[in-house]
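job 3f2a | input accepted
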Amino acid sequence: MPIRDIFLAILVPIILGFGFVIAKPAMDQLPPILL
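job 3f2a | predicted structure (35 res):
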């Protein structure tokens, strides 16, 4: 596999993981209608 493909394969789950970590406290504090 090219290095670029390996980098993307690692980067995408990291971005999704950080998105979930950030969204979890936001969903606790904001009413769902605002999201």
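job 3f2a | The helical segments are 3-29.
job 3f2a | closed
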